[in-house]
User: What shape does this take?
Amino acid sequence: MKQTLAIILLCLFHTILGAEENHCPNVNTFPISTNHGKPSDLSFHLAFTTTEDPISELKGILNLFKTKPVTLANGVVPNFGNTPNQYWFCFILHNDENHNKRTITFIKYPLLDEVQFYALRESGEVNTNTQGRRYPFGNRDRDYRGFSFATELLPSETVTYFVGIKTDSSVSVPLMIAEEKNFDTYKSIDTLLQGMFFGIVCVMSLYNLFVYFMVKDKAYIFYVNYLILAAILFQLSMQGLLPVLFFPNQPELVYNAHNFLYFLFLLSCFPMSITFMNLKENAPRFYLGFMGLSLVPMVCLLLLPLLPYRELNQFGDLLSSSLAFYALIVSYYVSFVKKFPPARFYFFGYFMLIVGGLTTVLKYMGFFPVNVFTENAFQAAMAMEVLLMAFGLGDRISVVQKEKERIQLKAEINKQKLIAYGKELKLAQKLQESTLPQILPKFPGLSIRTGYFPASLVGGDFYDLTVYGKQQICGLIADVTGHGVPAAIEAAMLKIAYMQTLAFANKPGKVLESINQALAGNYKNQFLTASAIFIDLEQKVLKVANAGHPALYKFNETSKSIDVIRPKGKLIGFSKEGLYSEEVHSVQKGDKILLFTDGIWDLWENGDSGEEALLDWLLQRKAETVESLYGGIDEHIRLRNKEGPADDDITFILFEIT
Assistant: This one.
């Protein structure tokens, strides 16, 4: 009997010694499996206390919960308004499953300056993280506009969490817990909703900006200014998206930008309201009231560097509330007393904004609880207000009905012009096609391939190949100025001048001189570049003349570099006195010659010089046949066309001495 009693007492003594101290008093442990890992509100498992002297060490935190009164949240999201105190929260998580669980503790409210996370494990290990609006965005465990802290719980492990909050804004702490995969889903939905809101506002901004340019009504430009400042920039700050999207490593800029954008938003309300309701004519006294009130946010903007953030933020909340009620009274008077129809949309839109704005302000002040409605009321109301105000501005379009009819008449005239222009383009296309060789000449000992790819229906490039004598072939390639009908006519003139030249010119320099004398002064002050060549297979020589045109390339399979041949010569049409020097180069079996217009360089252009890339490409494929080289260039053209239409015409002639 004595032995049994001793064993019982020993077990009780061991249990007392081994019992862990409860660092988070009176809270219910939260089992992770309760909501199957989905995002859960921790307010039913949360205790908190406060201190005027900030604490940043675990020892001080534990002592705080022992010595200070501790309050249970009891299902209410903690919300204390604008206060200088630091608040500490604690809760306990238990992994009641037989495998590791990676959890994310997060706070949805993004305007907290300092958030300290502590995770105290049963082993005594402590995991910590400090983040907040005044800390770099990279401190957060997840790319989330709120604050997030990741912990991996072992099977059957219990972890006590402490979260410290201090901010110059409102202390609103909607603490949530979720498994990692469910948090990622939650974050994706949140991102989608934010994207929908900003998408709506951006579309409405662009739409109203477009309308402004159509009707030149300044109410539209003031409304666009309001949308950009209030519904985009200020909302980016309100929703914690500035560090996410723009300034991840500039926390002080993010912190100070909030009040700046707040007062810019309030300032933008005045010109928009005055012009929207036409206050100067409809309500002169209210107009003077608006003008006087508009000075207040201007003064606040000037005082931003001088006054503390907290006081200015609180004053901004009071100013926005007062302005909202005043605007509602004025819009009611203008709408229903003065019977100005567009102001009715302003009234209902602003009424929605007031409901959402006051709900948000009262939540920040601590009068309203934090829930789905109060968290999203202002943003949802602003989206509805944006749409209603757009409808109101639409009423103003009625005054430009006659202008619309005039525009429609002009559009019909332009349509007929386009039809006529289309017919001209088809005619020009046929004319240009007639200037190009329909069949390539067959010349013993020479393989030829040509490519012609206009950037539009009618291009500005030209080429021709003509057998000259028994052993010579003459080639000409040119880049004619412009597109469309004028380019086609100029190409036809060039074709005529070229054909007349071949009757007596037996050298490429003479060909260019003769063309220049025929066209200079008769070409409507237009210029063209050209390159002419003679290939003599009997004497194995290549003669080249150039009129401001890109060089031709010569190479063979044994070449260590590409020969770049470009004699000097002025543009055709510049002066009738132009003389064109020639260069003579020997050719042999296997030599390849490439003539082209400068559009071909664009195919190889990728940040660097297209010409250098083309030369490298040719050198790598120097042993290939003309057919293979043509296929390679054609492939480049098709790949480039997938990215978008070419900016310039592409024309080339490939020769190979066989």
